[in-house]
Amino acid sequence: MGGKKSDLPALGPPVGMQPFCVNLRTLLLLVLLLQEGAGQFHVIGPRAPVIALVGEEAVLSCQLSPSMDAQNMEVRWYRNEPFGLLYHYSTSQNYMEGLRPEYQGRTEFLKENITKGHVALRIHPIQPSDGGEYACFFESSIYYNKAQFQVLVAGSGMVPHIHIEPGNRRVIKLTCTSTGWYPEPEVQWKDHQGLHLAPTSETKTIVENGLFHVESSLTVDKSSRAEFSCVVRNLILGVEKGVHVSMADALFPEDCPWPVGLAIIFSLLAVVTIISVQLVCARKNKGKKERKKKWEIAFICEKLEDNRKLHEELGLAFARGFAENVTLDPETAHPYLEVAEDKKSVKAKKNLQEIPISSQQFDNLVCVLGKQIFSKGRHYWEVSVERKVRWTLGICKDSVCRRGEITVSPETGFWTLCLKRCNDYQALASSPITLHFEEPPEIIGIFLDYEAGRLSFYNVNNLSHIYTYRNCFTEDLRPYFYPGPLYNGQNEDPLTIL
Description:
The chain contains 4 helices and 32 strands. The protein has helices spanning 18-37, 247-250, 258-284, 286-320; strands at 3-4, 42-44, 50-53, 58-65, 74-80, 83-90, 93-95, 107-113, 118-123, 132-139, 143-154, 161-166, 171-181, 186-191, 196-197, 201-206, 212-221, 227-234, 239-246, 337-339, 345-348, 368-369, 378-384, 391-397, 414-421, 424-427, 433-435, 443-449, 454-459, 464-470, 477-482, 495-497. Strands 1, 3, 5, 6, 7, 10 and 11 form a 7-stranded mixed β-sheet that branches. Strands 20-21-32-23-28-29-30 form a 7-stranded antiparallel β-sheet, with helices on one face. Strand 26 and strand 27 (433-435) form a beta hairpin. The longest helix has 35 residues, at 286-320.
């Protein structure tokens, strides 16, 4: 709710000339009513709750309506509960006094469009405690107003794991565990028909980082040969991760017929006999044979290493035979991205770009897609990431969601490789996989074999294989590019398709 900073003075009736007095009073009242609206404004914040991912960043955007210059205004961001000041800007100055200590060093004021009344506060990294009600407050010399909105913090945890342990003679205990979830997730057990099963016990605890660790147990009959699955679900993100176990495969059958039992026993005896004979022979020829064996093992190991490197080099050489002239599709680009005229490079900008709004455009994920659509065959392209401190590359389904907060993972239709921060390389699989390089890659090769269900990444600098996704592709796919945000003058170089 807005208000005037000071009341306007009351007007007294003029003296004398009564017929003219009525007209003059009416005129002054009209002027007063016009003046009351001058300088007033509304503050528009996020219309829907902002979904912020744990460990990532959230941008809390607010703007004035009608559009006006806010350089000489005071702008503040508050948390309503618990109450506290997050950021304070006043007439081109940033004030650090009185801020909540847990936000110091984690906030950045984005004022590139402040002359149009559009500003934002970036919070990074997001912590579980950041969820709640927020307000952004604007104050001019004569008026003030604010907007309130909600931030929902969410975290998608690890793929669950099922541990099998025997109970008594009749039952087996299945224990499903997973960690890294926020808020408290939902855990479900299902049988092979998809019917929900009631757990024997279930605990959900908050660990040191503020995220939830879940543990749920199910007791099943030992004679069962059915399949059971454990699914952990984040209701805010609409993301679920599951694992299943087949009791027939997991357990050695107890009711084994005696002929089968005898066959197993004789097989074990035969193996023991062969091993014994080999040990005796080995002892007789210990001297010369051992020296020869060591030389042979060293030779084989050397050849295996050579073959591995040769396979990787041949793999890249094979992939390059399917090189594509990949270009960028500006209609899919987020407004903070600038796509070059030749559509071969993209980089982040400080200001929103004046580009037409398109239904193909991402409104939150700061990325752009390739123009090409792949539904079959083999395709290869290379991207320069030299001097970049953050980037993500790969493919995604053409049908991926392009509105709101999006988790980049195979579950949502993305298969990517990224540099999150200095030397923190990851394959963004269902559970992110940390990758290690002897030397940081400057050129990434990407090879899609659609029918084989493989997406491979290569370090072109040393001709080495990085990582391969294996998936059954059934939809149209497009190249995916995320050049990363600007960081204090860093990351200004573009991602360039070679």
